[in-house]
TrEMBL record:
Gene: rpmG
Protein name as it appears in the record: Large ribosomal subunit protein bL33
Pfam families: Ribosomal_L33
GO cellular component: ribosome
UniProt family annotation: Belongs to the bacterial ribosomal protein bL33 family.
Keywords: Ribonucleoprotein, Ribosomal protein
Record-linked PANTHER family: 54S RIBOSOMAL PROTEIN L39, MITOCHONDRIAL, LARGE RIBOSOMAL SUBUNIT PROTEIN BL33M
Coiled-coil residues: none
InterPro entries to which the protein is assigned, alphabetical: Ribosomal_bL33 (IPR001705), Ribosomal_bL33_CS (IPR018264), Ribosomal_bL33_sf (IPR038584), Ribosomal_zn-bd (IPR011332)
Amino acid sequence: MASKRTELRPLIKLRSTADTGYTYVTRKNRRNDPERLVLRKYDPIARRHVEFRETR
């Protein structure tokens, strides 16, 4: 049975929009951010900051 913490804050993958295949793994709060998350983070393969979008 899943605990209350994992139901509210699931693990998500953030995939780079620079098509390098680089991903970050983080948690998000479903109540505060019900839509897909988009963050601007550093992609070491592209060597620049790009948008990372949530994948499921």
